[in-house]
Amino acid sequence: MEPDQRRAMIVAAALPLVIEFGASVTTAKIARAAGIGEGTIFRVFPDKDTLLAACMAEAVRPDDIVAHLESIALDQPLADRLTEAADVVRGHMARIGAVAGALAAAGRLERVTTPKPGQGGRLPDREAGLARPRAALAALFEPDREALRLAPERLADAFQLLLMSAGRPGAPDPLTTEELVDLFLHGALAAPGEAG
């Protein structure tokens, strides 16, 4: 197995364990989950913090979310496309939050996300991580371009920001995905006779 493949396999095995056990997960437990010897981990990662940083970087990596967004059928109504997209985005944010929360609870989040001297950033650029999903969201608005008040790109940016702010941990009475999409598409004012 190539080093990059082995690295990806170890991170894939470690991610659910980091979510469950946080930074206290042992490399022995990760090795068992990956079906490898513990020494193999240290042939790929110089230390546990580097492995934890790779888990955090994997959690924020946008490849999976973009693939999911691009697979949404464009022939369904806009509300259905956005509901499916919102579920995908919220799931991605929940995964990021679970990994970050687990590392923060152990006081390790800053340690694994802060660049080491001479190594540059340990996490991908935030804006770069948001740009690809935003472009995929814009494509979901595109079939309805003529009926939209704003360009698909601007709507995608606003929708992404709404999803990110609505998904914050500890929000009292969080909106459902359907409520978020309805609010985005129809605004805060109820139609006559519809007030709740």
TrEMBL record:
DNA-binding region, residue range(s): 26-45
- Tell me where in this chain the HTH tetR-type domain is found: 4-63
Q: Which PROSITE patterns match?
A: HTH_TETR_2
Q: Which UniProt keywords apply?
A: DNA-binding, Transcription, Transcription regulation
Q: Does the keyword Transcription apply?
A: yes
User: Looking at the record's lineage, which domain of life comes first?
Assistant: Bacteria
Gene3D superfamilies, per this entry? Tetracycline Repressor, domain 2 (1.10.357.10)
Q: What is the lineage of its organism?
A: Bacteria, Bacillati, Actinomycetota, Actinomycetes, Streptosporangiales
Pfam families per the UniProt record, alphabetical: TetR_N (PF00440)
For this entry, the protein name equals TetR/AcrR family transcriptional regulator
What InterPro entries does the record point to? Answer: Homeodomain-like_sf, HTH-type_TetR-like_transc_reg, HTH_TetR
